[in-house]
Amino acid sequence: MKPEELPPEKKVKYQYFLDGQKYESDTSSISGATVRSKLPPEKAGYAIYLESHGHDPDKLVQDSDNFSLEKNPLRFYSVPPATFGNA
Q: Within 13 Å of residue 42, how many CA atoms lie on the same side as its CB?
């Protein structure tokens, strides 16, 4: 039986983090759009990155990206849009 098919009291909760805030999901995968939906309105235009391990670069998250939560909780963070050349 898959975790998603268990009765509500036995369901597995999958975890992920955005800007240090813990979130839970009933499903074993989430989309970039789901992560983005957790941003407060004042951060609506921010970019979201997935933290990588080791020397790998962090990954820019697109709304259409899908992520598995089955192994370890993923950690995302938001970054304000860059404003180059403004004084």
A: 0
| Helix extents (H) in the chain | 32-36
Output the CA–CA distances (angstroms, integers) from residue 25 to 29, 40, 57, 85, in the order listed.
Answer: 8, 18, 26, 40
**What is the distance between the alpha carbons of residues 31 and 15, in angstroms, rounded to a whole number?**
13
H or E segment at 40? Answer: none
Q: Kindly list the strands in the beta sheet with 59-60, ordered across the sheet, starting from the edge strand earlier in the chain.
A: 21-25, 14-18, 74-79, 47-50, 59-60
Two tokens at 5? 């098919």
Regions of the chain where pLDDT drops below 50? none
Helices (runs of H) and strands (runs of E) counted in the chain: 1, 7
- What pLDDT score was predicted for residue 72? 86
